[in-house]
Structures are given as C-alpha cells and as structure tokens.
Amino acid sequence: MYRIDEFSRSTQAPSVTVLRAIINLYELTSFGWGSSHVFDPHAASVGGFIRGRSMKSVFLSVLSSFLIWAIFPLAALADPIDVSTISCERLVSAYEAKTPSDLSFVNGILNWMGGYHATAEQGTVVDWDKLSDAFNKTVVFCSEHPGIGVLSASEKFMGDNIDDASPQSYDLAIVTCETVLTNKDVIKNIGDTFMWLAGYHASYNNGSTILDIEKFVKQTSDIAEYCEANPKASLVTAAEKFMGEND
Questions:
Q1: Cα(89)–Cα(150) distance, rounded to whole angstroms?
Q2: What average pLDDT does the segment 10-32 reach?
Q3: pLDDT tens per residue across span 230-247
Q4: Using the 8-state DSSP alphabet, how is residue 13 labeled?
Q5: How many Å separate Cα 11 from the centre of its chain?
Q6: Residue 87, SS3?
Q7: Cα of 235 vs its chain's centroid, Å
C-alpha cells in the first residue's frame, strides 16, 4: 500500500536559482506530513534561530523551502497551473519516483486540494491526521484509476468525506502571525498550511482551479510583511487580504 507518511525529509533543497532569487537566499527547511502535524496553537516556544531576525525574514525563511520543493516541480515558474488537469497517472508517477522534489509535488498538490475541498461547515478547521489519511487514500485510488484527474479523485476522500473534527483538529483562524514564528510545530507545518490556504481561497474565488506560481510567491511575501506589522493578527485574516477574491 502507498503510504504518504513514508516521505523523507531533507535539510537541503535543490539548486533552483530562480526561486532562491525570489526568496532572497533565506535559510531553508523542509516539510512533509504525518502525525507531527498536531500542535497546540496557544503554546509559544521561541527557537534560538529566530532571535535577532526580523519577522519577515523568519517568515520567508520558513516558507522558502516549501516554495522550492513543492511549487517548482509543478511547472515552469512563469506559467499558471490548472490543477484540474493533473492526472492520477502523474501523481502516482511522482510518488513512485520517490525523489524529494517529486514527493514534494505530491505533498503540495494534495495540500492545495485539501483546502480546495473544505466545506463551508468545516471552514478553516483542519485535522492534519485525517487529511493525511485522505492523502494516502487518494494516492492508492489514483494508482488504481490512472486515467482520472487528481482533483476528482481527491474529492472522494476530502471535504464532506472527511469525518467530523476530532480533538486533534484546530482552527487556523486562531493561529496568529506571532504564533507562526514562535511555535516550533507551527513553523514546521507552515508550508503545508499556506498551500492549504491557497486551495481554500481558490475554491471560494469562483471555484478557480488555477494556481499561479508567481502570484503565490508574491502573496506569501505580502503576507510576511503584513504579519511583521500586525503580529497579533490571525494568519487567516492575513491570508484573506492577499489570497482573497479581490486581492
């Protein structure tokens, strides 16, 4: 059986000069998913690497690896991606390749779809463990149905088809900009969170399935600046300002 939680994590990123220029050579970390997604959004534990650095620099440092590992493999940076055209065959091929960039492609796309399929009732409440299980089921289903689109396949296991929220669920609306930079668990998962938010806003922006890479990079930079000026603001509020329909 395919297991997404087998993804390996690396401390080094591929040499992608275009994205490194955009992110301005910030320090790199890496992301994946699994049981480690569970965290207490009210807890605060300032890491030593944060001291002496601006909020924006830390924010973009945290996001930089995600942009390189999860976004770049999707398509040429200048070209918007129609997520609805990604086939199950492509997803499974990337998963089976097992390279860091291929696995991050799977990770990024499924996190985007997790947000896209979120229902009005679910809102911004996320249970990463249940979502991870939905990711696993999507890859297995895609391996058996290579001819269909990943967006349709993932809908079978996400949105209304995810069980009710569990005690492990949390509402992104209560995660503040400040918490993003002071809670180690939040920092670890911020890449997945931003891709989820991108999908979430795309769904509410007339159901758009277009993922514009350059626009997403600009949005994350704008959110970082906003968070630096408004550390007590909700991360969802910050994302809404720059990922919403009127951005």
A1: 9
A2: 32
A3: 989 999 999 999 998 665
A4: -
A5: 18
A6: strand
A7: 14
